[in-house]
Write a structure and sequence with these properties.
heterodimer, B: 2 helices, 20% helix
Chain lengths: 324, 161
């Protein structure tokens, strides 16, 4: 009779893939990943609302929580242990520069450089922008309908930001991704589009619509949303805002087994840093790849299962037919 | 290790059919996909061109694991002279095309382990897996360009193997 099980040694993996999902900052609600229901997802198509950020390098988990013995008796001897602090950090390098990876790898607010208005005064964080165009009804996350005069302002290859006008609100700004926190009102009508994560590349421009290369992370534009061209991104060393995201890291083993590290709440913990990786280690002074270094502090959530406060869930889905 | 070697070859052959069905070889009177195992054919006076030739080299094993892990080194040799219609001047392009095909058929870097001695082939419980290839520099002999790529193939020994 052929064997229908095998003894699986420790998983062998090649690399680790990262997925992030926005935490609802105002409601303090993270996105939870359920490995029992969602663990078999295709690595190229994560379940909603997880966003694939690709493979990572130098992934390191540090558990910095401390325990201390509770001493009793003479001479004192440990009676039991108590957990005195709960702390964990995660760090890794992103292998690409995108709006999201750059934002996650900076310690503070991340902004879009809106295309400047003609003659605008120079500004390190982005000058006054060209006026936004109104998005017409019937638009989707991938196709933006515009009046023909507005559509003519964009071409294939344009980078665009899509969101509503800023109307003086304070607190967390941006939905579904909070991109900033304002203590007092500003006068910049484009401020929400400066900090929005709803950005995309125009794959095709027609007389009345723009087709985006990737759908907007926030889905179909909200009523009253406007569009502006952007030229790039900027972040600042300093400020008071901390990015906070739910994170999921997946290591797939050679036999199909999977290890998940799920951090419901991660806040970036250091300022923006880069790591240089030479393309050819034998050639000093040659080309170097600039990697985004990301370092996060895990914040606790209360597990509804038993009320315990936890920082991270590590799950393991064994290979098919592997002994457990 | 034989099952792993067979599975690796069968996987690459199936992927080559999908990537470039026109890469074929006439061998022992039959037209086959353009990939073969050197040790499973009669010795060649000269290696055929325009095909991938798998040559098995080193072998290692880690017996300290829950299942024994074996690793074999595979050298994939391919050479090209270019086409007659271009007088062989396209041999560099032709070799680049084979480089790309090899990278394509090596991904994903795993395949189910099969026992092809059984009819129909029986599937084992584990996967055979491998690393990225290490490409050698091109060797030029007159109008013939040759390249090799070395790959380590890993497998777990299962019951009944």
């Amino acid at each position: 009779m052929p064997a229908n099980w095998f003894s699986a040694p420790a998983p062998v993996t090649r690399r680790l893939r990262a997925y992030f999902a926005p935490v609802n900052r105002a409601a303090q609600t993270p996105v939870l990943f359920d490995p029992s229901q969602q663990g078999a997802f295709s690595l190229d198509a994560p379940p909603t609302p997880w966003i694939d950020l690709g493979w990572t390098q130098n992934f390191t988990r540090i558990s910095a929580g401390k325990s201390a013995p509770l001493l009793t008796g003479i001479p004192a001897a440990p009676l039991e242990q108590v957990r005195t602090t709960l702390e964990a950090q995660v760090s890794f390098n992103f292998l690409s520069w995108t709006k999201l990876t750059m934002a996650l790898a900076t310690g503070s607010q991340h902004m879009n450089l809106l295309a400047p208005a003609t003659g605008a005064t120079a500004s390190a964080g982005g000058a006054a922008a060209t006026p936004a165009a109104t998005i017409q009804s019937g638009s989707t996350a991938s196709i933006l309908n515009l009046a023909s005069a507005d559509a003519a302002r964009f071409t294939t290859g344009s980078l665009v930001a899509v969101d509503t006008d800023y109307t003086g609100q304070t607190g967390f700004l941006g939905s579904p991704v909070a991109g900033a926190y304002l203590r007092q009102p500003l006068t910049d009508v484009d401020y929400v589009r400066r900090i929005t994560f709803n950005v995309a590349l125009v794959a095709q421009a027609s007389l009345s619509s723009l087709t985006l290369a990737q759908p907007l992370p926030g889905g179909a534009p909200a009523s009253g949303a406007k569009i502006q061209a952007l030229t790039g991104f900027v972040d600042r060393e300093g400020g008071t805002f901390y990015q906070e995201w739910s994170a999921l890291f997946v290591a797939q083993g050679s036999q199909g087994e999977r290890i998940f590290f799920h951090y419901p709440r991660l806040q970036s913990v250091t300022g923006a840093e880069e790591a240089l990786s030479p393309l050819d280690s034998r050639h000093k002074g040659g080309h170097e790849r600039v990697l985004l270094k990301a370092q996060f502090l895990a914040l606790p959530v209360t597990d509804p299962l038993d009320g315990e406060r936890v920082l991270c869930y590590r799950s393991f889905l064994p290979a098919t037919h592997a002994l457990i | 290790m034989q099952n792993a070697k067979d599975s690796f070859y069968v996987a690459l052959r199936a992927r080559l059919i999908a990537v470039n069905p026109e890469r074929t070889i006439l061998l022992r009177g039959a037209i086959r996909p353009g990939i073969l195992v050197e040790e499973a054919e009669a010795p060649f006076a000269q290696l055929p061109s325009d095909v991938f030739i798998l040559r098995w080299l080193g072998l290692g094993a880690d017996t300290s694991l829950a299942s024994i892990m074996a690793a074999a080194e595979c050298e994939i040799v391919y050479q090209i002279c270019g086409t007659q219609s271009f007088g062989g001047l396209d041999r560099g392009r032709a070799l680049s095309a084979m480089d790309e095909e090899l990278l394509a058929i090596l991904q994903p870097f795993y395949t189910p382990k099969l026992n092809i001695a059984a009819q129909p082939p029986a599937k084992f419980l584990t996967n055979v897996f491998w690393d990225e290839p290490v490409f050698s520099p091109i060797v030029a002999q007159r109008d013939r360009l040759t390249r090799t790529a070395k790959i380590l193939i890993y497998t777990y020994q299962e019951q009944g193997e």
